Amino acid sequence: MADDLQSKATDFVKKILSVGVGTIFLTEEAMRNMVTEFKLPKELINGIMQSANNTRKEFLQTLSHEVFENILSKVDSAKLIQEFFEKNEVDLQIRIKVSPKSKSE
Questions:
Q1: Which helix (H) or strand (E) element contains residue 67?
Q2: Is 9 buried (19+), middle (13-18) or exposed (0-12) by CB count in 10 A?
Q3: Which end of the chain is more exposed for a tag (fewer CB within 10 A), N or C?
Q4: How far is it, in rounded angstroms, from Cα 53 to Cα 50?
């Protein structure tokens, strides 16, 4: 009986860790399917899903900010732009056409 209880506890901990890690990498539908296996009330599942979405959003924003800051700290943007214009000829053409709207009324 103790082994059975330990096995169930181990499986439960694995599922909880999967949900935690899955928050970032799984789609919302996959997360919802995983969470519904716990047979929790619908309100609690909705709360978990909202928390997972907020966590995913915050993680991705932080990750992209850190990556962007890391790249900017290593690149001299003024030198990069200067080098680009020294090596390339830029031809910019803009065409704007304005036409009156047709009266369909």
A1: helix 42-74
A2: exposed
A3: C
A4: 5
